Amino acid sequence: MTKLLSAQDAAEMIQDGMTVMIGGFIGSGTPETLIDELVAKKAKSLTLIANDTGMPDRGVGKMVMAKQFKKIFASHIGTNPETGRQLNTRETEVKLVPQGTLAEQIRSGGAGLGGILTPTGIGTIVADGKQVIEIDGRSFLLETPLRADVALIKAHKGDRSGNLVYRGTSRNFNPLMAMAADLVIAEVEEIVEIGEIDPDHVITPGIFVDFLVSSKGGN
Fold it and tell me: For each of the chain's 219 residues, which pLDDT tens digit applies?
C-alpha cells in the first residue's frame, strides 16, 4: 500500500543536488503544495526537468525566483522572465528542448529505451554535439533518455494503492514522469479507498507511485 505523507515530510526526501522532474503545463497539473514546501525548505543546486518554468508566482517559477536550480531542462521559459535573466547571466544553466522531444526523452527513460530518433532540430543549433543517424535517406537526431532521482506529480484522484486519475489537460507530463524517476511522490486532490476508482479510469497504476501527499488546493 502506498504511504500517505505530509508535504513537509515529502520535501525532506529531496536532497540538495538531486535531479527532480516536476509535472505541469504553465501551472496546470502542477504539485503546488510540494513546490511550496521545497521553497520553504530552501532546497538548492537542483536539476529541474519540466515542460516549462511556470510564472514568477506560480508553479516551479517560485523555485526559479528562489534560485534553487543549477540546471533546467524545459521546452518553454517565456512566462517567467526570471528564468531568462538567470540564463543570460549564467546563474543557471538552461537547456531548451523542443516540447515533443522532451516528452519522448522522458517516455524513453521510463520505458527503459536507449533513446529516440527525431528529425526535429536537424540543421539547427539543437543538433550541435548530437549523433545524427541516417535511415532510408532521412537524417535523425539521437536524443538520449531522461530520468530523475525524484518525480513530483499532480493528480485529481488517487487511492491508497497509488492508482491515479487525472482531470482534463492537467494530465500533461505527469504520467510520463511517474515512470521515469527512482522515487515518485504524487500530490492528490482527493484520496479515496482502494476499490473506489474504476480500473478503466486509472491512468497511472499504483506500482509507479511511492508516496501520496494531500493537496491543499486544486488546479
Answer: 679 999 999 999 999 999 999 999 998 999 999 999 999 999 999 999 999 999 999 999 999 999 999 999 999 999 999 999 999 999 999 999 999 999 999 999 999 999 999 999 999 999 999 999 999 999 999 999 999 999 999 999 999 999 999 999 999 999 999 999 999 999 999 999 999 999 999 999 999 999 999 997 544
Tell me how far apart the alpha carbons of residues 99 and 212 are, in angstroms, rounded to a whole number.
Answer: 28
Angle (nearest 5°) at CA 101 between 133 and 155: 150
Residue at 127 is within a domain: no
Q: What is the CATH number of the domain that holds 12?
A: 3.40.1080.10
Residue 101 in 3-state DSSP?
Answer: helix
In a domain, 121, yes or no: no
133 domain-assigned: no
- The helix (run of H) or strand (run of E) holding residue 65 is helix 61-65
**pTM, two decimal places:** 0.95
Burial of 169-201, coded b for 16+ CB within 10 Å and e otherwise, reads ebbbbbbbbbbbbebbbbbbbebeeeeebeeee
How many domains does the chain contain in total?
1
| Closest to 54 (Cα-Cα) out of 31, 24, 99 | 24
- The set of cell numbers assigned to 210 is 511511492
Is 189 part of any domain? yes
